Amino acid sequence: MKAAKLYESLDKEFELHRLQEDEWSLLDLGDYMTESFSQSRMGLVLDNANEIRRVYTAVFPSERVLDKILSSGDREVLLFTHHPMIWDHSTGNFPFKNIPRDYLERLREQAIAHYCIHVPLDRNGPYSTTASFVKAVGIETEREFFDYHGVKVGIIGRTEYKTVSEIAGKIENLVGHRLKVWNYGAPEITNQKVALVAGGGNYPEIAEELGEAGVKTYITGVTMKSQSYEPSLRFHQICQEHKINVIAATHYSTEKFACIAVQRLFEYLGLPSEFIEDEPSFYDYE
C-alpha cells in the first residue's frame, strides 16, 4: 500500500484535524522527525518508506519493540504507537525519553516508518485506550467522564463484581502481573459502579469528578506519588478524602488493548499487522 495513502486514511479515521495534542516539550528526534509532527505532535513521526507492506503496533517505541522489528529484517513497514517517546519511570525524573539516535538511523536505513497518536487514541472510540480496556475487563459502559485536551477519555460503568478484591483479581489475571491497590474506602464496590482511565490517570481532577459522582472504585495505570509532581500527591489526598479505592495496573498494561484493537483497522485497510508485547513498569505504582 502506498504509504501516503495509508497516512491519509489514518489521519482521517482519527480526525487529527479536529484535535489538539500534548506538547511533548522534551521530544527531540532531530532532522529524523517530519515537519508535520514537529508542528502538530500527531501522525507521521518518521517518514522512512514509500510503500507499507506490514504494520507493527505497540504502546511505546521502546528499545525492546524496536529491536524486535529491526531483527526481523522487514523493510517497508510501519510502526504504529500510542506514544512518540519511551516510557521510563525508573529514574524518578521526567518519565519519557527519546528514541536513541542510533535507532533512528537504523530505522531510516531499513525503511521503517513511525506513526503515532496520543490524544486521538485516548479519545473514547472504537479503538481507544480506555474503551478497549473497559471491554477487556468486562465493564458495561454507562457514561463518559474526564475531559483531556478537549476530549472525553474516561468511562464510568457497571461491573458484575461485588468487591474491590474480586475485580482486582480479574484484572490481575487479565494483565498477567501484580497490581497495586490503594485501599482508601470500603471493600465493597458501591452500587457496582467503577470508573476507568487507561494509562496515566493520577490527575486530581479525576478524583474530584469521581468524588462528586459518588464512584468509589477507580482503575487506572499510574498511581505513583512523586514529590516533584504535586498533582500526584493531591490525587491521593482527594481519593482518601472521598474514600475512593484505586487499582493500578501499569501504564503499559492498561493501554495495550487499544494497540491490539487497532489491528482491526489495519485488517480493514488490507494490511497484515502484529502487536508487539512489551514490559510493564512497576515504578508506575509508587
Could you please describe the fold and organization of this structure?
The protein has helices at residues 3-13, 35-40, 63-72, 101-109, 119-122, 129-137, 164-175, 204-213, 230-241, 251-261, 263-268, and strands at 43-46, 54-58, 77-81, 86-87, 96-97, 112-116, 140-148, 151-158, 180-182, 193-196, 217-220, 245-248, 273-275. The protein is α/β, with parallel strands linked by helices. The protein folds into two domains: 3-118, Udp-n-acetylmuramoylalanyl-d-glutamate--2,6- Diaminopimelate Ligase, Chain: A, domain 1 (3-Layer(aba) Sandwich); 129-253, NIF3 (NGG1p interacting factor 3)-like (Udp-n-acetylmuramoylalanyl-d-glutamate--2,6- Diaminopimelate Ligase, Chain: A, domain 1, 3-Layer(aba) Sandwich), CATH 3.40.1390. Strands 7-8-10-11-12-9 form a six-stranded mixed β-sheet, sandwiched between helices. It has a five-stranded mixed β-sheet with strand order 1-6-3-2-13, sandwiched between helices. It is globular, with a radius of gyration of 19 Å. The model has no long low-confidence stretch (mean pLDDT 97).
Characterize this entry briefly.
The chain has 286 residues and is α/β, with parallel strands linked by helices.
